[in-house]
Design a protein that fits this description.
about 475 residues, Aldehyde Dehydrogenase, Chain A, domain 2, globular, Ald_DH_CS_CYS, oxidoreductase, Succinate-semialdehyde dehydrogenase (NADP(+)), succinate-semialdehyde dehydrogenase (NAD+) activity, EC 1.2.1.16
């Protein structure tokens, strides 16, 4: 376990000497203390990344790829230990923690292979005697700001393409889950990354603006990549405008999940379980509004409630836990507020609908997996992302009605629907205003697929060949006098 910043090849404390505690959400016990960094540390990280950039971009792509492949191998070597660390600081079940490491490593492997495919173009010249080229080059220093819900996958999904492209990196992990990110950086160093190429600083919630504001103001930072809330994403966009940084923003969601009368109901229930209850519902692509057509509504709810009511709630230390603690008390309070508001406005609790504290789930941060019926647009959970194990079910009658409702949100990250009508499948897929669509599928993430949203869910893509383009710019070279 690493508990220090990594700047210019050294593990170090914050310049101020301050620290903050990382807590286990299962019982709010202290796991470790990490540096509480400020502006001085943020500048030192940029200084190191800027100094290392010229040398790193000159490293042949095949050698950069080899280092990334070694990093991938080390992550898989330590999969069990890293997965346990994720579960300890984030709360997800052990099986999910181990699976996240494999998922994170898949991005490192993918971009290791993509590093050798950053090709340019030869453009046909309009006149004799010229040679015209379009060359792809790394943008420069990249600042990566990552969330707490997938502390391994999110940092790998941002750092791997940056390094593959020839960029250097300064990173700030979420204050709730910095230990996994620090451990991955340690493995990247073990894989052979030169000093200054990858730098990471930790900061508490209170001091995070101090760190990030330094990176926003520094013209040497040429790109910001961020996953988090839409209000913070808008702030980053505004404050990066003076230096015209490139931005990748993966922001909030309010995903619809639609089940039509002609759907395979059992498949739809299993798809919803996979999409909704991973990480206890704390993912940006979790279905937040579930729509069931009138003809299958009652049957769908009955089968869903049976599956949800059987989920085991408990700490990651228990092998049979399927829903762990929420990340902190603020998260549980928001979930409870959404459910209470829905009930006050006419919703019915079919299962769950309460905080959990018993001999197994003994800590303060547990909430029972919940199914609500009678959900309406008047409720908070229609407008806000609950980010927890709560399924509100809305009844609908027609295809046009539900597509309009699904799109009635400023967000557009993910959407899901189930149907066996091939014509409807393409009509609805085309009509949904979303960057990602799951058609008869609840598990949609893959390193080879472009991940990102539209509208106020942000812009830019992570993963796939498109994910590398966000870390490159194009230089046009025109050579004359060749005839």
């Amino acid at each position: 376990m690493q508990t220090k910043n990594h700047i210019a090849g050294r593990w170090c404390d914050a310049a101020s000497g301050d620290h903050f505690a990382v807590l286990d959400p299962a019982d709010d016990s202290r796991v470790a203390e990490v540096p509480d960094s400020g502006a001085e540390d943020a500048r030192a990280a940029v200084d190191a990344a800027h100094a290392a950039f010229a040398g790193w971009r000159a490293v042949p792509a095949r050698q950069r790829a080899a280092m990334l492949k070694r990093w991938n191998d080390l992550m898989l070597r330590d999969q069990d230990r890293l997965g346990a660390l994720i579960s300890q600081e984030q709360g997800k079940p052990l099986a999910e923690g181990r699976a996240e490491i494999a998922y994170a490593a898949s991005y490192v492997e993918w971009f290791a292979e993509e590093a050798t495919r950053v090709n340019g173009e030869v453009i046909p010249a309009p006149v004799r005697g010229r040679r015209m080229l379009a060359l792809r080059e790394p943008v420069g220093v990249v600042a990566a700001i990552t969330p707490w819900n997938f502390p391994a996958a999110m940092i790998a999904r941002k750092i791997a393409p940056a390094l593959a492209a020839g960029c250097t990196v300064v990173a700030k992990p979420a204050e709730d889950t910095p230990l996994t990110s620090l451990a991955l950086v340690a493995l990247a160093v073990e894989a052979g990354l030169p000093p200054g190429v990858l730098n990471i600083v930790c900061a508490s919630r209170e001091r995070t603006p101090e760190v990030v504001d330094v990176w926003l103001a520094d013209a040497r930072v040429r790109k910001i990549t961020f996953t988090g809330s839409t209000p913070v994403g808008k702030h980053l966009a505004r404050e990066s405008a003076p230096t015209l940084k490139k931005l990748s923003l993966e922001l909030g969601g309010n995903a619809p999940f639609i089940v039509f009368d002609d759907a395979d109901v059992d498949a739809a229930v299993e798809g919803l379980m996979a999409a909704k209850f991973r990480n206890g519902g704390q993912t940006c692509v979790c279905p937040n509004r579930v729509f069931a057509q009138a003809g299958i509504h009652d049957r769908f709810v009955q089968r869903l409630a049976a599956r949800v009511g059987a989920l085991k709630v408990g700490p990651s230390s228990r092998a049979d836990s399927q829903i762990g603690p929420m990340i902190n008390a603020r998260a549980v309070d928001k979930i409870a507020r959404h459910v209470d508001d829905a009930v006050e406005r006419g919703a019915t609790v079919v299962t769950g609908g309460r905080r959990v504290r018993d001999e197994v789930a003994a800590g303060p941060n547990y909430y029972a997996p919940t199914v609500l019926t009678g959900a309406t647009t008047a409720m908070l959970l229609w407008h806000e992302e609950t980010f927890g194990p709560v399924v509100p079910v809305f009844r609908f009658d027609t295809e046009d009605e539900v597509v309009t409702a699904a799109n009635d949100t400023p967000f557009g990250l993910a959407a899901y629907f189930y149907t066996q009508d091939i014509a409807r499948a393409w009509r609805v897929a085309d009509a949904l205003e979303s960057g990602i669509v799951g058609l008869n599928e609840g598990a949609i993430a893959a390193e080879s697929a472009p991940f990102g949203g539209v509208k106020e869910s942000g812009y830019g893509r992570e993963g796939s060949t498109h994910g590398l383009e966000d870390y490159l710019h194009i230089k046009y070279v025109c050579q004359g006098g060749l005839s």
